[in-house]
Amino acid sequence: MNTAIDDLAILPATTEAWTVVHQDEFLLVVNKPAHLLTVPGRHPQNQDCLISRVQQQFPSAAVVHRLDYDTSGLLVLPLTKQALSTLSKEFQSRGTKKLYQAVVSGVPKPSSGTVDKAIAADRDNRPLYKICQDGKASVTHYTVLEVLPDYQASLVQLEPVTGRSHQLRLHMQSIGHAILGDPFYANPAQQQQSQRLMLHAAQLQFTHPQSGDWMSFTAAADFWQALR
């Protein structure tokens, strides 16, 4: 028995299809469904993922950024080595802009603000992360878009300035407004309010690696049917 492998979670891949939002000879912009890894996981049964599916149609597609298994939304996938190199540098220098939509418990007050709290891996509770003064600097801007009184919740826009693992989930939970359906940071009642994590990468902006044009793409969140 391989204990190390047995300790890894098996994450069943959704049958929902990924879709192409934009295609040219240098890159793809795709919309990833929830419950699908961006890249293969460590467990042998977690090999089905977005990039493996995309490469069946576009063999040269590569990954420069990721979305969590539970998160849906937009990703750019370079198709050439030059595009991979250029986009990698742009992401590393934070030259891209990403906007997310989430449904969170309650209504954040004030209606817009910034969460500036450092994050570190929670080594006693893997794969969780935690707010920690000695962690990596992490900043998120939020804005309430709509109050949802029927669910005692609200739709918010989230803009991560940094790109830490679980940043948006943890930052919203840390100010008392966990994302509904979050299996890691929401309480049991908040988890039961949705059949999935109510987090979607709704807008992605970056400089095209070949033309130098500023590109902007949007994909509407389709998670409303998951609310209970």
Automatic annotation (TrEMBL):
**Enzymatic class:** isomerase
Per the record's keyword annotation, is GTP-binding included, yes or no?
A: no
What are the Pseudouridine synthase RsuA/RluA-like domain coordinates in residue numbering? 27-174
Q: Which UniProt keywords apply?
A: Isomerase
Q: Which InterPro entries does this entry report, sorted A to Z?
A: PsdUridine_synth_cat_dom_sf, PsdUridine_synth_RluC/D, PsdUridine_synth_RsuA/RluA, RluA_PseudoU_synthase
Q: What is its EC number?
A: 5.4.99.-
Q: Which GO terms describe its biological process?
A: enzyme-directed rRNA pseudouridine synthesis
Matches recorded under CDD domains: PseudoU_synth_RluA_like
Q: Active-site positions, per UniProt?
A: D68
Report the GO molecular function annotations: catalytic activity, acting on RNA; pseudouridine synthase activity; RNA binding
Under catalytic activity, the entry for this protein gives:
a uridine in RNA = a pseudouridine in RNA
Q: What is the stated purpose of this protein? A: Responsible for synthesis of pseudouridine from uracil.
NCBIfam families per the UniProt record, alphabetical: rluA_subfam (TIGR00005)
Family to which this protein belongs = Belongs to the pseudouridine synthase RluA family.
What protein name applies here? Pseudouridine synthase
